[in-house]
Amino acid sequence: MAKLIWVLFFSAFALLGHAKEAVLAAQDPVLEARMVRITSELRCLVCQNQTIADSHAALAVDLRNQVMEQLQQGQSDQQIIDYMTARYGDFVLYRPPLKASTVVLWFGPGLLLPISLAALFVVLRRRSRLPPEAFDPDEPETPGPEAHRH
Amino acid sequence: MKYLKFLLPLGVFLGLVVFLAAGLKLNPREVPSPLIDKPAPAFSLTQLENPAQTIRRDDLLGKVWMLNVWASWCVACRQEHPLLVKFAQSKLLPIYGLNYKDSRPDGLQWLARFGNPYDASLFDQDGRVGIDWGVYGVPETFIIDRQGVVRFKHIGPLTPDVIRSRIEPLVRKLNG
């Protein structure tokens, strides 16, 4: 129950953070929605854990203006993304492209999981084959601080 | 087999130490610039000192030059400034300033107060040229070769070590 309350508590925060997105007031809601969508995919280089859509840094404000301006000129989403990566590199992309230098980034976690599962399996199997003498006898249950389970 | 039980955690621990030590030395603010070995972005800006005088990228073709991005509101620029003034006295290469998102009076006052190492400062009031150069943390320093190709970028204040071990050898090589 306590866990559930914590989860609710933090999701409320996450929602709050989302609602507070620093967005420019623009005349055209369609373009603005596109602008927010594009800049939500771009990392702000000044405060690196925020998107350009989220950030209040001066550079992020400039870049949002820049994106808006280019949208008004009729540029496609991809053209704007290309414009950003030409200046700031792949680092600005929250979804990095798949290429030689990012292979570890993309597949490392996927590889680590089966490797660690296999290791776990081997260890457990080895232990299950050990005779009971290999283990310490169970402690008899004693009342006191030991009984206080986490 | 008996040893493996002890060596394995030790190995894992040492591996972790190596990774963490390397991580400590990395500076996440130093994002590799995609501009390196690419033509310098075009610009056409007025001089800070003289609004009537315009400088374009192509005016600077044919010489190796330095672009130093600065602003009067930038604290780290002040920290870097004495070193840059001293470096300018060596006359190793022309140094152009990019006065980034500043005002003319503030910029000029700053130079008058702390010294002017620049052959000229380009006045980038709205930061548009800064964006084209991928500037995100002032000060930044670029070295551009004779063909107008960006050869080096340093993010953050210059240090004596960067000048000695990176910039001076590179400029000599490009001029050589």
Question: How do the helices and strands follow one another from N- to C-terminus of chain A?
Answer: HHHHH
Determine and state the CATH class of the largest domain in chain A: Mainly Alpha
**How helical, in percent, are the residues of chain A?**
55-70%
How much helicity do the residues of chain B have?
25-40%
> What value does the Rg of chain A take, in angstroms?
26 Å
- Measured distance between first and last alpha carbons of chain A: 15 Å
Fourth-tier CATH superfamily name of chain B:
Glutaredoxin
Mean of residue pLDDT values of chain B: 92
Q: What portion of residues of chain A belong to β-strands? A: under 5%
Main pleated sheet of chain B: 5 strands, mixed
Detail the poorly predicted runs of chain B. Answer: none
What features would you describe in this structure?
The complex is a heterodimer of chains A (150) and B (176). Chain A is mostly helical and 150 residues long. Helix content of chain A is 55%, strand content 0%. Chain A folds into two domains: 77 residues, Helicase, Ruva Protein, domain 3 (Orthogonal Bundle), CATH 1.10.8.640; 32 residues. In chain A, helix 2 packs across helix 3. Chain A is elongated. In chain A, 16% of the residues are buried. About 6% of the residues of chain A have low confidence. Chain B is an alpha/beta fold. Chain B has one domain: Glutaredoxin (3-Layer(aba) Sandwich). Chain B is 39% helix and 19% strand. In chain B, helix 3 links the parallel strand 4 and strand 5. The longest helix of chain B has 22 residues. The chains are: A mainly alpha (150), B alpha/beta (176). Chains A and B meet through helix 3 and helix 4 of A and loops of B.
